[in-house]
Amino acid sequence: MFRRGSDRAGAVHGPAHTVLAAVLPPAAVPVGVVPVTAGGTTSAMFRPRTVGEAVEMLAAAHDSGAAVALLGGGTDLVPALRSGERAAEVVVALRRVLELRVRGAGADSLTIGAGVTYTDLAGWSLSPGLARAARVVGSVQIRNTGTVGGALGSARPAGDLLTFLTAADAEVLTTSPRGSDRLPLPRFLAEGLAPDALVTAVRLARPGGPQVYLKIGERQAAYPAVVSCAVLVDRVRHRLTCAVGGVGLLPARMEAAERYARDEVDWSTGTVSSAAARRFGDLVVEAATRITPALPAGPRGSAEYRWHAAGVLAGRAFARCLHVTAPPASGPVGDFAAGGQP
Amino acid sequence: MGGEAVSGGIGRSVRRPDGPDKASGVFRYAGDLRVPGMLHARTLRSPHPRARLGRIDAAAARRLPGVAAVVTAADVPGVATYGLIVADQPVFAAAEVRYAGEPVAAVAAVDVATARRALAAIEVDYEPLPPSTDPERVLAADAESLHPAGNLFREIDIRHGEPGVDGPVVVEDRYVVGMQDQAFLAPEAALVSPAADGGVDLLVATQWLHSDREQLAACLGIPENLVRLTLAGVGGAFGGREDVTLQIHGALLARATGAPVRIAYDRVESFLGHPHRHPARMWFRHTATADGELVSVQANVVLDGGAYASSSPAVLANAVTHAAGPYRVPHTRLRGVAVRTNNPPCGAMRGFGVPQVTIGHEAQMDRLADALGMDPVELRIRNAVRPGDVLPTGQVLGAPLPARELIQLVAARPLPPPPTADVTGLALPGGLPAAAEPGRVRRGVGYALAYKNLLFSEGMDDSSAARVRLDLTDDGTPRVRVHSACAEVGQGFVTIAGQIARTELGVEQVVLAPADTAVGSAGSTSASRQTWMSGGAVRGACVAVADRLLARVARAADLPAEVVEAPRRTLRIAAGHIVGVEAGLRIGIADALAEGPIEADYTFHHRRTTALDAEGQGDPHVAFAGAAHRAVVDVDIDLGLVRVVSMALAQDCGTVLNPLSLRGQVEGGTAQGLGLALMEELITVDGVVVNPTFHDYLLPTIADVPDLDFVAVTEPQPDAPYGVKGVGEAPTCTATPAIVAAIRAAVGRDLRRVPVRPQDLVDLPTRPDLPTGSDLPTGSDVPAGVDVPTRAGVDPAGGASTA
Ligand SMILES: Cc1cc2nc3c(=O)[nH]c(=O)nc-3n(C[C@H](O)[C@H](O)[C@H](O)COP(=O)(O)OP(=O)(O)OC[C@H]3O[C@@H](n4cnc5c(N)ncnc54)[C@H](O)[C@@H]3O)c2cc1C
């Protein structure tokens, strides 16, 4: 359990700290090297105030050979440390790094600091789709605590933010002793983060049209997604992107369905036929069945169900982003919402 | 006794004394207890569902600084095994581990982190063996025996009426129920202190102090009087604390170290550490006349008891004796087995075998109604049992059991308004995040009727003792002190005991002594029994105290000898006074107590029942309580997501002692049944639980459970104190099948598996709801000459309803 808040400087705990104290800039140490016990391991916790300090601490810890963990909101990390699933001799807590808690808008992009919480995002009018994805995360406690950096660090197969960012062609901004870097989300996820680097922000384009995020689980609220789906429309560039979470090890882009949409949508009016909407869902199911590696069978939702549900969610999200023409008798979406049968 | 004008008597919604503390987070649960100098204990568990256990080397763990003791099977001085009914479970696995999560060793250290490190330092040689996890295979002739006691915990075969008599309408199918967990919120914890006299003192969250004591003493090899238990704050139980879990381990460590030991489980261990609700595989065959009279019911139930017996034999008796439901059936053949596998042990959980069979018999009733073209409520009304009917065990049903009235009442409750097209958010299946299409949502309504036995069955004399003392406080006000070993696990004995004492003794101030083993056993807080049994004991002790008090007053007032002997004819207690109208007497209770306090003990027994004979006949159950639920659900038919829109419940409650507590019990029971219907399932893969956290084992939240529309039927139970009935279990039995029935009505497909999963409600290439290759009887097993429809489970189109 974390014992926080002691500002008593330099409580020496374990070799990691002794080594680090020698290397670290003096300013960094007094703000709290707090011995923490989580699970079976005792760690030293550092609380940098700037990204620069954080990087120095990371690098020093890394050089000393200590196992380091970055701490955002701790909603994933703390349970993992407690259960022994992860071990860390050094914890670098990012809460006090104010520059990570900033979100901002440029002419055509949005930048969101790694320390921004779901609650911070949930009311953000500049990105209604993202706000919506943030609003359906966990419970209010998780939204108040969980951060964007943590969502990227954990990279859950059906992480809500991750699914949305995957559809949004987001870029990940990182900083390490070698400087700052900026790489597309898929590359970040494929390559992983260097042990002495941290995520400082994500960047995505300003919305260019409707964005819909849907997720399903097995109760009415506060559930982890079994399947999730984000559809983002860019009316200016005539693009529609779609990502599905909960099928593969990471959220996946539905490229065939996206190409189909690009050709089928009447971009001058933003309309599409109901047959096209149905076909869109079917294409998502086809793509979902081919995602490799597939998520191993878990406690809930068979693979077949996940594929099916991905198609239904994609069909619905698609229809909500566009005007569907020639609605069938059973209602505007009734006909194709059941689509997505393999 | 007339306790008029004393507030807080029976029938009032007296608030729980621990309510504010619990609501504000300051209540001390067992896990919150600390004493200076105590050690922290943790448990080492087998990761394998089945393995031969070789060497256990704890030398390195013992050498770690801060480690005080490591105990294993070799350190158990007394009997090596324990158990609620049969002692077949090793304190620590010795030669073989039989389930994943079975304790192998325990460690006490200066802090939790050191204890954890010590666990990691214990070297255990496991030689994994192939686990037997299919409950339908372990009784096969060639199946390996998993324990010296064999793989069969119990078999019951009830034959009633004539074999082979059938009605023309036949409905037959198989049903599967998954493993529900009690999932109480405060994990197992105890504080165990060694005592100077060689004994141990335990502060522990349990359901049955005296049963724990008996098992502890046997395994520790010391007399029971040296094992003293006091109930610590219990955060939920639901049957999951009826078995011993960490008690013996903690006591061994306290005795080994000579220091107080805090032993506790974390959430994952809690999911592994206590027995769960039995998963069931069931086959039913119902036949009826063309106008809907049940003619015969056959059932075959397989309960997976997991690695050890726990209460499996008793759970099975409940399941089988209730398998035909609260219906009059002339001809029954109800069979069942509880078997040993290498799955997690299963035992007591709210409903105790009845929820499983209710899921089966109620699904059958709906399908029978379909086959008959009859309304499901009408079919139930027509067949509902009445007092005086003979049950499948030959037991004559006692009054009251208003089964017909219950189903009629619940069916008459107003229905919720139909779904509107513009409904959004939480009001749709899947809630806000799913944002379902209102146009793709279908509504369904379903009913379930059940009865559940009250108190222990089959000849058990599960009596309850209580001690009541009436004395004066320092400032001279009368006070009642009630001492009972009844475990308060949330059911409300803490209010009921005071209400009874106030009513009987006319004294407002009542204190409840801590529940402990210094007084006689109150029996288990289970089987819907404590208000009846321990309430009866408290009442009996209060009456004895009152009799002595009145006799004392009569004597003091020089009333005739016959009044002193039977003072209640002349004197009564009314609001702090003893009043004798004819004798012109009125004296304050405080004055009568000046001479000294009055104390009395009382032991309450329920009526005797009998065991089942070879034909499954007898008088096994003390009494029953009935319940009927109506569920209304909305289903997103594309995604298979379900939202429960409304729940109505009519329940046979007997006299209501505390309306607020009653409401708590029936709402909780409904929520727990809802959980089983839709989401609560511990999933095992090759015997290993894969979802032992609240992230993956989903409990219903406030967003999932609608307000309960509740009607109590309050016909008094004649042989119970004040006419009470137990109320906690019956609604759990009916909530699940009512919801399943409502889903079935919404989606138009037969459902054979509980919990119902989204994947069971949509069209997928394969239908995964039943295990394949099952040994449960199907058509081939029914009496010759009966035309049996399609085999269920093989026919993916489902259904075996024919008319
Ligand atoms: C009860 C509960 C419900 C949840 N529900 C949901 C849900 O509905 N949807 C959902 O998507 N998730 C859910 N989660 C998961 C989790 O809360 C989120 O993914 C969250 O974003 C994690 O953020 P955090 O700040 O708490 O991360 P932490 O736990 O602090 O860290 C998570 C990981 O990221 C790393 N990390 C943290 N910050 C950085 C950084 N700046 N750079 C690099 N690595 C970093 C950590 O080292 C760690 O490996 C839930 C979790 C819980 C406990």
From TrEMBL, chain A:
Superkingdom: Bacteria
UniProt keyword Flavoprotein, yes or no: yes
Listed name of the protein: Aerobic-type carbon monoxide dehydrogenase, middle subunit CoxM/CutM-like protein
Signal peptide as annotated in the record: none
GO MF annotation, one: oxidoreductase activity
Keyword Flavoprotein assigned: yes
Keywords per UniProt: FAD, Flavoprotein, Oxidoreductase
Pfam family, one: FAD_binding_5
Database matches in PROSITE patterns: FAD_PCMH
SMART domains hit by this protein: CO_deh_flav_C (SM01092)
InterPro entries linked: CO_DH_flav_C, CO_DH_flav_C_dom_sf, Diverse_Substr_Oxidored, FAD-bd_PCMH, FAD-bd_PCMH-like_sf, FAD-bd_PCMH_sub1, FAD-bd_PCMH_sub2, Mopterin_DH_FAD-bd
FAD-binding PCMH-type domain ranges (all copies): 38-209
TrEMBL record, chain B:
Residues of the Aldehyde oxidase/xanthine dehydrogenase a/b hammerhead domain: 24-130
Molecular function, one GO term: xanthine dehydrogenase activity
Region of interest called Disordered, as start-end residue ranges on this chain: 1-22, 759-803
Comp. bias regions, Gly residues: 1-11
EC number: 1.17.1.4
Keywords associated with the record: Oxidoreductase
InterPro entries named in the record: Ald_Oxase/Xan_DH_a/b (IPR000674), Ald_Oxase/Xan_DH_a/b_sf (IPR036856), Ald_Oxase/xanthine_DH-like (IPR016208), AldOxase/xan_DH_MoCoBD1 (IPR008274), AldOxase/xan_DH_MoCoBD2 (IPR046867), AldOxase/xan_DH_Mopterin-bd_sf (IPR037165), Xanthine_dehydrogenase_dsu (IPR017609)
UniProt-listed Pfam families: Ald_Xan_dh_C, MoCoBD_1, MoCoBD_2
NCBIfam families recorded: pucD
Protein name as catalogued: Xanthine dehydrogenase, molybdenum binding subunit apoprotein
Natural source organism: Frankia torreyi
